Please model this.
Amino acid sequence: MLRYFLKRLLWMIPIILAVAIVVFTLMTFCPGDPAEIILGSEATDDALQAKRDELGLSDPYFVRLGRYLSDTFIHFNLGVAWKTGIPIGQSIAERLPRTMLLSGITLLLSFGIGVPLGVIAAVNQNKWQDSLCMVLALVGVSMPNFWLALLLVILFAVKLQWLPALGIGGVKYYILPAISSSSMHIASAARQSRSSMLDVIRSDYITTARAKGVPEKQVITKHALKNALIPIITMMGTQFGKMLGGAMIIETIFSIPGMGTLIITSVNNRDYPVVQTGTIFLAIVFSFSMLLVDMLYALVDPRIKAQYQRKAKMGRVK
Amino acid sequence: MAKKVKKGQSEFSRFLYQLSKNKMAMIGLAIIVLEIIVAIIAPWIAPYGYQEIDTTALRQAPSAAHWFGTDEIGRDIFSRVLIGTRYSLSMGILATLISAAIGIVIGAIAGFAGGWADNIIMRFLDVIQSLPGMLLVIVMSAVLGSGYFNTILALSVGSIPASARMLRANMLRQRKAEYIEAAYSINCSAPRIIFRHLVPNSISANIVQMTMGVSHVIVQAASLSFIGLGIQPPIPDWGAMLSGARAFIRKSPHMVIFPGLAIAVTVLAVNMLGDGVRDAMDPKLKK
Amino acid sequence: MPRSYLEIENLKVEYFSSKETVHAVNGVNLRMHKGKTLGLVGETGAGKTTIAKSILRILPDVGSRIVEGSIYVEGNDLLKLKEADMRKIRGNDISMIFQDPMTALNPVQRVGEQISEAVKLHSDMTKEQCDARAKEMLKMVGITEDRFSEYPHQFSGGMKQRIVIAIALACNPKILLADEPTTALDVTIQAQVLDLVAELQKKFNTSMLLITHDLGVVAQVCDEVAIIYAGQIVEYGTKEQIFHHPSHPYTIGLFGAIPDMAGDDEWLHPIEGLPPDPTKPIVGCPFAPRCKFASEKCFKETPPTLKTPDGHESTCHNMDLVVKEGK
Model:
């Protein structure tokens, strides 16, 4: 298993390089003259030209690409933002943890609240608990997170004044962002959990468990749930990208200084180095989390673990 | 105990029949059809033009004259929401169709060709999937610029890998099926096998995926205009309207409620229909 | 008359959904004797599995209902027991072996634990003792002890079925319900599994209800046979009686349908027609539409259960005629 994990890690390297190259290349197509963006529209033509030379913009594409890659990955020199002059590395170091925190809370809430809700609905199929949970889930899944955020702000920050609408600080600053970010995913998890549980409950091995005399509660928690978790974890894995993306939007509403606000502001300001490097870092973090999810499967499903071990032996990884 | 199959009933008509019995799905479909109609006739039924400004009625709460109230420049929100229907729904559907089409073709090639072509395509998809969806949309939007068609393109890139992988996986499974061996054995040519047998049988999962995908894309589109990319004002895209409303959240909450409600209802309808499509496609019905 | 060891009286079971009701079991009367094997023979959909699941009361919670009837084991009606008491019986006094070994085992639980779990539930033994017993059972079914910690996917179909048998027999049940235990297996493995089950049954003096659609299996393993059609028992007797003197048109049809390897036939002789639609309640004899001995009475009145000349039972209006003309 360790072998498989290491192989996957090694495999990440060329993928990340490819991402860096693709993002860099895409950014070169972005409209706007970097020199003008930095110096402003009043700068003289000479000043602009000097700046362009300084940034090495007249060099051919491959030279610039090579320089960027070696700067970023070998020298770890991530450069400075064009507009603010703040070192990009510093920005990322400050902001990435906040975005990850918000995404992490979303993941925990969706798992911790969504899964039990779905299980309750499945176990009480067609009764009122089921209908209630599923109606709530359907509505939850359909509300855009940023709209929910605004509605929550209207209710809790403006009308009731219980919670702050902006910024970071203590726990209370994260409550509304966490709720808006996770509602859709809690609902999604509930729906998926219900579906998985229903499938599993109908399986033959559940009948075997009952025929053995296992008490119903244990049938659900010990036998059914563990099997139902597998597709649920799959879904969580695919949803994590949406959680990250959603967190980025939510940040802008609550003025949380995270990667979301960084990248979005930079796109609007045409501060492309920030967008470029920020994106690549998020890609790295995301790929890593996907790897962790894959490892989690193996812990839960012995068949997957066996599959990984076979693949590692055969020299294949995907 | 088999359900009685009527003579000549095809898989597709069984699916349609199944779908029509699902109340929620039919309500969802009705709402979508209604919205499509509204989108088409909006300029004619809207009480005001979407750019029509009444400087005496800034940020007014809902009233008889303005059912949803007015915005910060004095435009009628109801009319703008009606006209905005054109953008959200069409962007969602078009972006999904484009990404599904590209994804299916790529997935079919990868699934059928195998070998190094498959490998390269898979790595390429890996690269796209290394970026969280919204981030990719933002970057593509930055590169392509704002505007209706650019935004549709930006939205479609992110959904291509999921589509491609789904088709490829199903195709790999079908390739091993006996009926394909049978087709080969009666000398069916490769393209015929791909298009008449493999793709149609692999595509049902993609259809479910597409229906769910539309709602996701609609939210992404709205998010994009909310943060200032994508569709630009004065076009009354719902997300853009919410963006403008943010500054006035304390004094004029009505500006936030209605455009968002429009998005939510649309997404809800698509989800209801999507659930119905998924259940109707599933041979073992979950009663 | 004292009741037999296991006696089912007038059992009626339905499956229902919002659209329709399936009458799966329609007034079944069955008797099983201690230490003997009763074969329950019928085609797919006849209600055999439903009967077994009703005995253990493990029908699905949603969509099924035992409408009426009694199931007596050693004189006690199981259908009147509280769920908590029923749970003590399941896996302990009465066990079941299922048809499809591929899906009968929990994929994420080690096989040894699946066996010892059954033991732990029904005894006061410690975990180590239960594990020891599980290892014993594994040996008994022909699987080496050191495979205790492996997962189901690491075993073949035949071995999975042995594990299922080990689970069923771990607590020395008095009654074993075997639902087509060999149908999903290759013929060679089939023979092995049947031998194993018969051997263990003799060893522990377990009474067994063997559900099957295969007359060959019945011939090999059973002492008594009950033939079931459309949720009703149509004929019941010892193996010899049924095989040598089948007295119900359906049974005769079944035997007639077996291809005769020695004979000269060009065509198979299936029974004409199809079983009745289980969603419609049955009037008269369920086999009447397909029966060449059917008279008007057969379509209107429920047939009586009569004694045949050699002392076994057949549920038929025209039994005398059938016995005379038979074959």
